[in-house]
Protein backbone atom coordinates (compact mmCIF):
# COMPACT_ATOMS: atom_id res chain seq x y z
CA UNK A 1 0.00 0.00 0.00
CA UNK A 2 1.85 3.05 -1.27
CA UNK A 3 1.71 6.22 0.81
CA UNK A 4 2.51 9.51 -0.88
CA UNK A 5 4.07 12.40 0.97
CA UNK A 6 2.94 16.01 0.64
CA UNK A 7 5.32 18.65 1.97
CA UNK A 8 3.61 22.05 2.16
CA UNK A 9 6.30 24.57 1.24
CA UNK A 10 4.51 27.37 -0.64
CA UNK A 11 3.86 29.93 2.09
CA UNK A 12 5.10 33.50 2.25
CA UNK A 13 6.52 33.38 5.81
CA UNK A 14 4.88 36.75 6.51
CA UNK A 15 5.54 36.73 10.26
CA UNK A 16 9.20 35.78 9.81
CA UNK A 17 9.82 38.52 7.25
CA UNK A 18 11.90 36.21 5.05
CA UNK A 19 11.50 32.74 3.63
CA UNK A 20 11.84 30.59 6.73
CA UNK A 21 11.99 27.37 4.72
CA UNK A 22 15.44 28.38 3.51
CA UNK A 23 16.77 28.93 7.04
CA UNK A 24 19.24 26.30 8.16
CA UNK A 25 19.18 24.07 11.20
CA UNK A 26 22.15 21.80 11.73
CA UNK A 27 23.50 23.00 8.40
CA UNK A 28 20.42 22.07 6.37
CA UNK A 29 17.56 24.23 5.03
CA UNK A 30 14.26 23.50 6.76
CA UNK A 31 12.48 22.44 3.58
CA UNK A 32 15.26 20.04 2.59
CA UNK A 33 15.25 18.60 6.10
CA UNK A 34 11.52 17.83 5.87
CA UNK A 35 11.73 16.40 2.35
CA UNK A 36 14.73 14.23 3.14
CA UNK A 37 13.03 12.72 6.18
CA UNK A 38 9.90 12.01 4.20
CA UNK A 39 11.92 10.19 1.56
CA UNK A 40 13.89 8.27 4.17
CA UNK A 41 10.59 7.15 5.72
CA UNK A 42 9.56 5.60 2.40
CA UNK A 43 6.91 8.09 1.25
CA UNK A 44 6.47 7.50 -2.47
CA UNK A 45 6.16 9.74 -4.32
CA UNK A 46 7.20 12.72 -2.25
CA UNK A 47 5.40 15.83 -3.50
CA UNK A 48 6.66 19.26 -2.48
CA UNK A 49 4.11 22.02 -3.02
CA UNK A 50 5.89 25.18 -4.16
CA UNK A 51 4.71 28.77 -4.43
CA UNK A 52 6.48 31.71 -2.81
CA UNK A 53 10.11 31.87 -4.06
CA UNK A 54 9.60 28.50 -5.68
CA UNK A 55 12.85 28.68 -7.66
CA UNK A 56 14.89 29.26 -4.51
CA UNK A 57 13.19 26.34 -2.78
CA UNK A 58 13.92 24.10 -5.78
CA UNK A 59 17.60 25.04 -5.54
CA UNK A 60 17.94 23.77 -1.98
CA UNK A 61 16.06 20.57 -2.88
CA UNK A 62 18.46 19.75 -5.71
CA UNK A 63 19.46 16.09 -5.80
CA UNK A 64 16.44 14.79 -3.86
CA UNK A 65 13.97 12.43 -5.55
CA UNK A 66 10.91 14.58 -5.10
CA UNK A 67 8.13 15.80 -7.40
CA UNK A 68 7.46 19.55 -7.47
CA UNK A 69 3.84 20.70 -7.45
CA UNK A 70 3.24 24.35 -8.28
CA UNK A 71 0.51 26.18 -6.39
CA UNK A 72 -0.15 29.40 -8.26
CA UNK A 73 -2.72 30.37 -5.61
CA UNK A 74 -0.37 30.10 -2.63
CA UNK A 75 -1.14 33.66 -1.48
CA UNK A 76 -4.74 32.59 -0.78
CA UNK A 77 -3.74 30.35 2.12
CA UNK A 78 -2.53 26.89 3.06
CA UNK A 79 -5.75 25.19 1.98
CA UNK A 80 -4.83 25.91 -1.64
CA UNK A 81 -1.50 24.12 -1.16
CA UNK A 82 -3.16 21.14 0.49
CA UNK A 83 -5.64 20.98 -2.38
CA UNK A 84 -2.86 21.16 -4.99
CA UNK A 85 -0.86 18.46 -3.25
CA UNK A 86 -3.78 16.06 -2.91
CA UNK A 87 -4.75 16.59 -6.55
CA UNK A 88 -1.23 15.55 -7.60
CA UNK A 89 -1.18 12.25 -5.68
CA UNK A 90 -0.98 9.42 -8.25
CA UNK A 91 -3.66 6.74 -8.42
CA UNK A 92 -1.29 4.05 -7.14
CA UNK A 93 -1.08 5.72 -3.71
CA UNK A 94 -3.77 4.66 -1.27
CA UNK A 95 -3.08 7.43 1.21
CA UNK A 96 -1.13 10.67 1.61
CA UNK A 97 0.85 11.91 4.58
CA UNK A 98 1.05 15.69 5.02
CA UNK A 99 4.16 17.35 6.42
CA UNK A 100 4.89 20.98 7.22
CA UNK A 101 8.39 22.10 6.34
CA UNK A 102 8.61 24.39 9.38
CA UNK A 103 8.30 21.62 12.00
CA UNK A 104 11.98 20.73 12.50
CA UNK A 105 11.48 18.19 15.30
CA UNK A 106 9.41 15.79 13.19
CA UNK A 107 11.74 12.84 12.77
CA UNK A 108 11.79 10.02 10.25
CA UNK A 109 10.67 7.58 12.95
CA UNK A 110 7.57 9.67 13.64
CA UNK A 111 6.56 9.57 9.98
CA UNK A 112 7.14 5.84 9.87
CA UNK A 113 5.02 5.30 12.98
CA UNK A 114 2.07 7.27 11.58
CA UNK A 115 2.17 5.14 8.42
CA UNK A 116 2.47 1.95 10.48
CA UNK A 117 -0.57 2.87 12.57
CA UNK A 118 -2.62 3.46 9.43
CA UNK A 119 -1.66 0.09 8.01
CA UNK A 120 -2.41 -1.53 11.35
CA UNK A 121 -5.77 0.15 12.04
CA UNK A 122 -7.15 1.00 8.61
CA UNK A 123 -8.34 4.32 10.06
CA UNK A 124 -9.42 6.95 7.51
CA UNK A 125 -7.11 9.48 9.14
CA UNK A 126 -4.13 9.12 11.48
CA UNK A 127 -3.18 12.28 13.32
CA UNK A 128 -0.18 13.30 15.39
CA UNK A 129 -1.09 14.67 18.82
CA UNK A 130 1.27 16.78 20.93
CA UNK A 131 -0.32 17.08 24.33
CA UNK A 132 -3.68 18.72 23.65
CA UNK A 133 -2.71 19.96 20.17
CA UNK A 134 -3.00 18.09 16.88
CA UNK A 135 -0.71 18.79 13.94
CA UNK A 136 1.16 17.01 11.14
CA UNK A 137 2.39 14.53 10.26
CA UNK A 138 -1.18 13.58 9.39
CA UNK A 139 -2.14 10.72 7.09
CA UNK A 140 -5.35 10.77 5.06
CA UNK A 141 -6.71 7.70 3.30
CA UNK A 142 -7.68 8.20 -0.34
CA UNK A 143 -11.38 8.13 0.50
CA UNK A 144 -10.92 11.51 2.24
CA UNK A 145 -9.13 13.22 -0.66
CA UNK A 146 -12.32 14.84 -2.06
CA UNK A 147 -12.89 16.48 1.33
CA UNK A 148 -9.42 18.06 1.32
CA UNK A 149 -9.70 19.83 -2.02
CA UNK A 150 -10.88 23.33 -2.76
CA UNK A 151 -11.25 26.39 -0.61
CA UNK A 152 -8.88 29.07 0.62
CA UNK A 153 -7.57 30.13 4.00
CA UNK A 154 -6.31 27.55 6.49
CA UNK A 155 -7.52 24.69 8.63
CA UNK A 156 -9.26 22.38 6.16
CA UNK A 157 -7.11 19.44 7.20
CA UNK A 158 -8.09 19.90 10.85
CA UNK A 159 -11.75 20.20 9.86
CA UNK A 160 -11.59 16.85 8.11
CA UNK A 161 -10.04 15.30 11.21
CA UNK A 162 -12.87 16.68 13.37
CA UNK A 163 -15.48 15.44 10.92
CA UNK A 164 -14.12 11.90 11.21
CA UNK A 165 -14.80 11.91 14.95
CA UNK A 166 -14.11 8.56 16.61
CA UNK A 167 -12.89 7.09 13.32
CA UNK A 168 -9.72 9.21 13.59
CA UNK A 169 -6.69 7.49 15.12
CA UNK A 170 -4.18 9.50 17.17
CA UNK A 171 -0.47 8.99 17.69
CA UNK A 172 0.92 10.78 20.73
CA UNK A 173 4.26 12.62 20.79
CA UNK A 174 5.97 14.87 23.35
CA UNK A 175 4.54 18.40 23.33
CA UNK A 176 8.02 19.82 22.67
CA UNK A 177 8.12 18.13 19.27
CA UNK A 178 5.35 20.44 18.06
CA UNK A 179 7.60 23.51 17.76
CA UNK A 180 7.01 25.33 14.49
CA UNK A 181 9.02 28.30 13.34
CA UNK A 182 7.11 31.52 12.74
CA UNK A 183 9.40 34.10 14.34
CA UNK A 184 13.16 34.67 14.49
CA UNK A 185 13.18 33.78 18.19
CA UNK A 186 11.54 30.43 17.36
CA UNK A 187 14.52 29.59 15.17
CA UNK A 188 16.94 30.57 17.93
CA UNK A 189 15.12 28.34 20.43
CA UNK A 190 15.14 25.41 17.99
CA UNK A 191 18.87 25.79 17.43
CA UNK A 192 19.49 25.87 21.19
CA UNK A 193 17.39 22.74 21.69
CA UNK A 194 19.31 20.89 19.00
CA UNK A 195 22.64 21.97 20.49
CA UNK A 196 21.49 20.57 23.85
CA UNK A 197 20.41 17.37 22.15
CA UNK A 198 16.78 17.92 23.19
Quick overview:
The protein is an alpha/beta fold and 198 residues long.
Question: Explain this structure to me?
Answer:
With 198 residues, this protein is an alpha/beta fold. It has one domain (2-196): Spore Coat Polysaccharide Biosynthesis Protein SpsA, Chain A (Alpha-Beta Complex). It is 34% helix and 25% strand. It contains seven helices and nine strands; from the N terminus they run E-E-E-H-E-H-E-H-E-H-E-E-H-H-E-H. The protein has helices at 30-40, 54-60, 78-87, 108-121, 145-148, 156-164, 184-196, and strands at residues 2-9, 24-25, 28-29, 46-50, 67-70, 93-100, 125-130, 133-141, 169-173. Strands 5-4-1-6-8-7-9 form a seven-stranded mixed beta sheet, sandwiched between helices. It starts with a strand and ends with a helix. The relative contact order is 0.18.
